[in-house]
Amino acid sequence: MxxxxxxxxxxxxNGVSTDTRSIKKxxxxxxxxxxxxxxxxxxxxALNSGASYVIIDNKDYYIDERTILVQNSLKTLQELAKYHRxxxxxxxxxxxxxxxxTTTKELFNAVLSKKFKTIATIGNLNNHIGxxxxxxxxxxxxxxGIIEMGANHQKEIEFLCSIAQPDLGYITNFxxxxxxxFGGVEGVIKGxxxxxxxxxxxxxxxxxxxxxxxxxxxxxxxNSFTFSSQTANTDIFFRTIxxxxxxxxxxxxxxxQSNLIGIYNATNIxxxxxxxxxxxxxxxxIKEAIETYIPNNNRSQIIEKESNKxxxxxxxxxxxxxxxxxxxxxxxxxxxxxxxxxDMFELGTESFEEHQKxxxxxxxxxxxxxxxxxxxxxxHKTDSEHLYFFKDFDELSQYLQKHSFTxxxxxxxxxxxxxxxxxxxxx
Length: 427
Known about the structure:
Elements: H1 3-11, E1 16-17, E2 27-30, H2 43-48, E3 51-56, E4 67-69, H3 73-88, E5 91-96, H4 101-112, E6 118-120, H5 130-135, E7 144-148, H6 156-164, E8 168-171, H7 179-182, H8 185-192, H9 194-201, E9 205-209, H10 213-218, E10 223-228, E11 236-243, E12 246-251, E13 254-261, H11 263-278, H12 283-291, E14 301-305, E15 308-313, H13 319-331, E16 337-342, H14 351-363, E17 368-373, H15 375-378, E18 387-390, H16 393-402, E19 409-413
Parallel strand pairs: 1-2, 2-3, 3-4, 5-7, 5-8, 6-7, 8-9, 9-10, 10-11, 15-19, 16-17, 16-19, 17-18
Antiparallel strand pairs: 11-12, 12-13, 14-15
Helix pairs in contact: 1-3, 4-11, 4-12, 6-9, 11-12, 13-14
């Protein structure tokens, strides 16, 4: 069956699902395969749960005329999403970067939804499956789609651009993330810049932070809308950007005070203001959108428990974001501070050195207690009165059950696989 025919069937349904646990009535179920599962085996269950059609790529699970047999279900999902994107012609803003993608995406959505009907990536569904699923949520009413793109190796952003075909794009930054897959920092720059390459080739618009030297250099060959706090030769000039602890920015005669921790989030806010300004959203609406945005999902959340105030930033971590979070934390004017830091993943051969650098940074802060969790940090265990090392979370939890925190400002940060939000149960 041709993709045009599958698309016509898709338009008669209430959307796509790849998980039988989320099947709704009149859904198109697409059976994907993974390392430990084969959703072809759930085709009949999907139909019994309310799906109108199922797409499979194993003829052994063919049921009846409601079954669409294809060569590769994943490729069909991607082709269907690309066809649907072209069919609708919705304006699409894509973003990628090493740090801050999801928060920036949510800020973009908060601002743009003041004037337009928007749909944005849910959570961090930003890969070769998540991007197609997001595109297939678009309808004729969708005026702007906001697509987050993640990558851990080169050519991945290029592939996602070929599906989403963005009209505008933004790269948050180039940091030390997924070094193993990208082959070092230069590989990260090359891989993330694939979004710029697409925008340049197709004469589309790039939002550029001129305070970032890499972006500034690459902007010379792009159609760009720029912002800066260092040069007035820009589309939007920010007179001040600061954080103590919450990020605040001033441009023109307007000051915007956010609920986001850290100077790095001030940059994300600047990007959202630039996007809103480009789309002619009023300054008052931009201000309201940003000031009422509350972070969640373990990203720079402020939580108060007993006498302690907690900065929960445990959604993910890499050397760049860890360094930024710690530097900001050190500057906060609190008398009693503690950090709980988990291993940073996917650093490959640079893991040993990068964890060592973080410990060295912390060691200088004699008035802060540091708790390091995970085998990578444990490899650098040293005797110190304010540094504590734990092989894994279980070892940390046993310690916390016997020792309590009082009147502390606590930063919790680590890679997603560390699941450090569990610490909240012991504070």
